[in-house]
Write a structure and sequence with these properties.
Layout lengths: L19 E8 L5 E8 L7 E7 L5 E7 L6 E7 L7 E11 L16 E12 L7
Antiparallel strand pairs: 1-2, 2-5, 3-4, 3-6, 6-7
Length: 132
């Protein structure tokens, strides 16, 4: 049983109308972790999200997936790959719905997901915050 109190001025939306609100990324003082905060519009069906952090060398610094989010407000910590340098980082978030094959289609490959929103946030990790 889902127990929550929806705001009547902010009703749950169908999948194609779900959006990401104000994504934020904040580096930890140790320079090895990044705190990510995401907020989704209210939803009728649970969305998934792909979270990718690109480092100053234009390579993947961290990556995670959220499958069928239960809450609208999500907070997670990304652990940067070892040796990630100080510099400019970009957080990319894609919100999507994955359609699964039906029982009549066993073994079928997954169809392309329905991407409903994308967002990116840039931030900087200064050299003084990078762990030795």
């Amino acid at each position: 049983m889902d127990i929550f109190f929806p705001d009547p001025n902010d009703p749950p939306l169908p999948p194609d109308e779900v959006r990401l609100r104000s994504p934020r990324a904040e580096p930890w003082p140790d320079g090895l972790h990044v705190k990510v905060q995401l907020e989704l519009t209210p939803f009728q069906k649970r969305p998934s999200a792909d979270v990718l952090l690109i480092g100053p060398d234009d390579q993947e610094a961290a990556h995670t997936s959220i499958l069928e989010a239960f809450n609208r407000k999500l907070e997670l910590n990304l652990h940067l790959k070892s040796g990630s340098p100080a510099g400019a980082y970009t957080l990319h978030v894609t919100v999507y719905y994955q359609h699964l094959p039906t029982a009549e289609q066993p073994g079928a490959s997954l169809p392309e997901p329905l991407v409903v929103d994308r967002s990116q946030v840039s931030f900087h990790i200064p050299p003084s915050e990078v762990a030795p």
